[in-house]
Design goal:
The relative contact order is 0.07. With 353 residues, the chain is α/β, with parallel strands linked by helices. It is elongated. It folds into two domains: 188 residues, Beta Polymerase, domain 2, CATH 3.30.460.10; 132 residues, no CATH class. The chain is 57% helix and 11% strand. The strands form two sheets. Strands 1, 2, 3, 4, 5 and 6 form a six-stranded mixed sheet that branches. A two-stranded parallel sheet has the order 7-8.
């Protein structure tokens, strides 16, 4: 290495402590911004270029750098997202967090010809804004790379199988690389499109639930969650709790979805009819148990559980059907005896006569 390169390496060694401090600040700022905006990423990683790597770079093209500050990737940060549209979200966040050197930043996604595929990534050359950190840190440029998981996979494979080789890759294999890159790009786009479609579907379901058009809403995990947000069983729960002046504590009702499906519920309209038609009998079944106890704390699931029990009992289900409900809801090994006790209490009630 010539004297100029050695001088740059000496500057690099002197700058290392500040690079470590900058690395910590930048990672913290990006991590905070991602959390604040609610953007989930696959990974946030950073590295400081090693002396060995820098020496190799200076041997190849050290003459183009007059000072160590001209090397913009001594600190590199990589944000790997799950979806292509999140890359643009992250890019907008970087522009708000840092001063971006637009002249030296590059969007690799826009460099391909219409019929070519390959490395896709967004690279920003950034600095900390003046006044947000010591001057010596604000003067150091760093690179932020933003790409998706699949783009990162492509970059890693392409680098390991192609760029590191001293042998010229035959055109046939390069064409295979391009085909795979095109497939990954298509998958990336389809994942983003699917996420958008699912978000639209959820909004539509919320609208239908809010408007009361429940027969049009298929009973799915998403629609069931939306329905529960309307607290449909509160009235029945409070009616039951009034027997012992009991307090109701929160419970997760998502686990009732497989039970409702097993009972033949296909839409939210079916669930709503279950509530409207069986509330009185569910109340009676609950009271038959509570009337001989002094329980003053009840689970929020008590109304829905008794609705399901009343439904299977009216449909002719015996101990096995009742035990299935209890087992599905995570009961213990005593469910057989509990099912028998429920059957005995129900046998004395009007809806079973």
């Amino acid at each position: 290495m010539d004297a100029h390169g050695e001088r740059l390496l000496a500057q690099y060694r002197e700058r290392l402590p500040r690079l470590e401090e900058l690395r910590s600040r930048v990672e913290g700022l990006i991590g905070h911004a991602l959390q604040q905006q609610g953007v989930d990423v696959s990974s946030l990683e950073s590295r400081i270029k090693t002396e060995h790597s820098l020496a190799g770079k200076l041997e190849r093209k050290g003459s183009k750098y007059s000072d160590i500050g001209d090397i913009t990737d001594l600190l590199g940060v990589r944000v790997i997202t799950f979806y292509t549209d999140d890359v643009d979200k992250v890019a907008a966040m970087m522009a708000r967090c840092f001063d971006v050197d637009w002249g030296n930043s590059v969007d690799k996604r826009k460099l391909h010809e219409l019929d070519s595929f390959g490395y896709n990534s967004l690279h920003y050359i950034c600095r900390l804004p003046q006044g947000t950190a010591p001057e010596e840190l604000c003067a150091i440029p760093f690179e932020v790379q933003m790409r998706t998981v699949l783009q990162h996979l492509w970059a890693t494979i392409n680098h390991d199988t192609g760029y590191k080789s001293d042998v010229q890759i035959p055109r046939y294999y390069m064409r295979q690389f391009s085909r795979i890159a095109g497939m990954l790009e298509l998958v990336d786009d389809e994942f983003s499109r699917l996420r958008t479609s699912l978000a639209d579907y959820r909004r539509q379901m919320l609208s239908l639930v809010a408007s009361g058009r429940l027969d049009e809403v298929e009973l799915t995990a998403d629609s069931w969650h939306s329905y529960l947000e309307t607290h449909p069983f509160d009235r029945l729960n409070h009616r039951i709790a009034a027997v012992n002046q009991a307090e109701i504590f929160p419970a997760q009702l998502e686990g009732y979805l497989p039970v409702l499906r097993q009972l033949g519920m296909k839409t939210l309209g079916d669930v709503q009819r279950l509530l409207e038609q069986e509330s009185d009998d569910a109340y009676l079944l609950a009271v038959s148990d509570l009337a001989v106890t002094d329980l003053d704390i009840l689970s929020e699931s008590i109304g829905l559980q008794n609705l399901c029990l009343v439904h299977v009992l009216k449909m002719g289900g015996g101990r096995a059907a009742v035990e299935y409900i209890l087992d599905t809801l995570g009961g213990s090994g005593s469910n057989t005896a509990l099912a028998e006790a429920i059957l005995q209490r129900a046998s004395t009630l009007p809806f079973m006569q």
